[in-house]
Write a structure and sequence with these properties.
With 188 residues, this protein is an alpha/beta fold. Helices cover 42% and strands 20% of the residues. The chain starts with a strand and ends with a helix.
Length: 188
């Protein structure tokens, strides 16, 4: 892999975008890769737009900031508006299909704009709390930036204490990751 993969994840505070970025960075680091993660929280911790900037590569990452992302994930209407500026002609832009009245706000400078029903799937098939893990599975499938097994190990490291108390959570999180990969694979 040459230059680092640049990822922007954005959503409302509490949607778990920072957790996803941390898990992806951890998975990359465990494999000896370079990862640079910069969180950006809205003014209010819960209720503001939370943005995670993540770069993963095989060589030292020169600068923490970037203008254009390789993949941009937006989980709310405000996140779509906030992240449009990171979209270029080759950017894969993924947003949740449950966001209403957002068509006019979607980026028009790339033809790689994909809507996935992550919130709906999490509510109907799994649990609303694994919505962000569905998104992580989509990122993994769309970019190949980290292997699915490595991401599972990183989730285990971050959430293992919760899984020990409730083993069903492990299976639900892993299933959510696989489901996110399936949702984006249908579109790519």
């Amino acid at each position: 892999m040459g230059k680092p993969i640049k990822i922007v994840l954005a959503g409302e505070g509490g949607q778990g975008v920072q957790s996803v970025a941390e898990i992806l960075a951890e998975a990359a680091n465990e494999k000896g890769r370079e990862a640079l993660y910069i969180p950006n929280f809205g003014v209010e911790q819960r209720g503001g737009v939370s943005v995670a900037y993540l770069q993963i590569g095989d060589e030292a990452i020169g600068a923490p900031k970037f203008q254009i992302g390789d993949i941009v994930i937006a989980l709310s209407d405000r996140a779509v508006i906030r992240t449009r500026k990171y979209v270029g002609p080759e950017t894969v832009f993924v947003y949740d299909s449950g966001i209403e009245n957002i068509q006019d706000e979607l980026p028009t400078n790339t033809d790689k704009v994909y809507a996935i029903p992550a919130i709906e799937v999490s509510k109907k098939e799994l649990h609303p709390r694994v919505f962000n893990v569905i998104i992580m599975g989509a990122v993994l499938k769309a970019t190949g930036v980290v292997a699915m097994d490595d991401a599972k190990k990183a989730i285990e490291k971050k959430l293992g204490y919760k899984f020990d108390k409730n083993p069903e959570l492990r299976e639900m999180n892993f299933k959510a990751m696989e489901r996110g990969a399936e949702l984006v694979a249908e579109l790519l």
